[in-house]
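Continuing the batch. This is chain 6 of the set; chains 1 through 5 are on the previous pages. Same settings as before, nothing changed between runs. Recording input and output for traceability.
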Amino acid sequence: MRLFHFSDDPDIAVFEPRPVRIASIRPAGREWLNGPLVWAIDGDHDFLYLFPRDCPRILIWAMPETPESERRRWLGDWRAAAFIERGWLERLEAETIHRYEMPTEDFEDLGDAGMWVSRRRVIPMERIAVSRLDREFAPRRVELRVVDSLRRLKSLWDTSLHVSGIRLRNARDWEWGG
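Output for chain 6:
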């Protein structure tokens, strides 16, 4: 298994544990996830972070309990799908991000969408610049879908698919309540 951290910063020599920038509501007993940690993603889920840092996106994939009809409707022959707003496509095509490979020791699996955390400082093993992010999805069997608004996809949370919404506060017309 390989673990990665993605950043727009090309010069990180050491990752120090730090709290999240915007705290999330966590289940009882997991509030510590807002505290000082180093975050990483496994190689199977790295497509969640192949975006400019603040790019709002919704990512979906089938779960074992997902009915075949629902999987075919939303994914077709793709392993997963990544939705972004049209206004972010140019940045996705133009920006370069940096993929840091992390040593696996000292990381603990959160059992959630390939996310891992370390409570200790981490020295990355390697850094690779990744450009033309829009071309990184298809080789991973992930379909990049450009939409006018992510808001129209709120009903995905009512399906049996795994749905990850990242940086949705930056979406053009996103409101959780509406």
